[in-house]
Amino acid sequence: MLRVTVLGTGYVGLVSGVCLSELGHRVICADKDKEKIKTLQQAKLPIHEDGLLCLLKKNVSANRLSFSSNIEASIHDSDIIIIAVGTPLDADGNCTLEYVNDCAAKIAMHASKDVVVVVKSTVPVGTCDRIQNYLDETSHFNCVVASNPEFLREGNAVHDFMNPDRIVIGTDGRAKDCMLRLYGSYAMKGVSFIYADRRTAELIKYASNTFLAMKVAFINEISDLSQRAGCDMQKLIEGIGSDKRIGPAFLKPGPGFGGSCFPKDVKALINISDALGVEIPLIRNVLHTNVMRQHHIAKAIKSKLHDGDVLAVLGLTYKAHTDDVRESPAAAILRLLINDCPSITIKAFDPCGMRNAEKILPSKHVTYCGDAYEACTGASVAVILTEWECFKEINPALLKSVMKHPRIYDCRGIIDREKFSKAGFHVRAIGYKAKEPAAIS
Ligand code: UDX
User: Fold this and answer.
1) Is any ligand 1 atom within 6 A of the Cβ of residue 413?
2) N or C: at which end does the chain have fewer Cβ atoms within 10 angstroms?
3) Tens digits of per-residue pLDDT, 203-256?
4) Of 128, 261, 369, 376, which one is the catalytic site residue?
């Protein structure tokens, strides 16, 4: 059992802290946001994450997990300090490292014994080495820095933490034993440990996320090709994904990738390549094609709307099973429509994301509704932008009865097209076979 302090209680820090206490360690999750800590101390979650609350309650009751806004005291006699604070992009598209640097400064000042400092935040290559040099110069104790990137998907983060494909550890060798004690139970389950130097571990994170984003961008372009050529997208995905070298994951076409990681990490990798003077045209285009996709979808929706129409938007979060709207394609498409079609009325529903959506899409532009049917009442077009289960279960006849015109644009390919067509809907969907395939000369 190790005494662990996690600095930062966002999606990564909170899930990591709770799961590490579940693995048997004594964990303090610390954050300077007093309100957030108070919420956690009341056994309430500031984020939407399946399975997290019961683990939190279980480990608080077992006295393995606590929360504090006193960063200094939380650092005091830890064996391991995990930095899991945000590294948002600034206006120039560079990673903001002020929160990471602030953690390093507090560790230098308040660590009271030799300690392993684990950087779990996604940081530019070379950051951990810089923090190691800083702590060597400023701390009275032996602070050993390791890079330990996370690969947690929002909405699946507890599952992903407890069932990792691999544990990546960037170290100069001094942190190896301690990290093995931290993750010992995984070693016994046969999880592979990849030990590298810190810079390589930092780049593994960026390269992994960028590859996954590229895979999404790839299938989105293929879905446009497939649709125009009159091919069957589901069979196409099956045929591609059955190749073990490719795999079926991340081959679902949609409105583009979003979230607090993919867009940021691809941009950060492009910045790293610019700083190193290395040309990466393929990766540079991953971002471009993603943004263009949202413009194309907004244009397609706009082409179906007339002045005074009502547009129903189903789904605002960047994906299902989260309340997060950061870099959400739905939000980006809505912004474009608000800008381009001032005369239309936009009504929206999302089962989890409306509280966060309202902060970025004010209710003067969007009417937030209680369910999909309310949002579609009087609408000329309904568009599905997030793959929530509740949208897959929509009753076509009931929906048609409340809409002004039965038109639906399924940007996630989740509804039964035949069922909706039979109910009298005009269905447009990403990935579906075009009724009249384009002639191929
Ligand atoms: C991602 C990485 O998966 C995770 O390893 C990393 O630690 C953080 O970033 P997350 O952002 O939670 O996780 O979402 P993810 O499930 O990866 O989806 C990212 C985006 O790609 C979403 O907008 C999602 O809708 C989109 N996506 C994903 C698709 O459009 N199609 C797919 O098949 C998969």
Assistant:
1) no
2) C
3) 999 999 999 999 999 999 999 999 889 999 999 999 999 999 999 999 999 999
4) 261
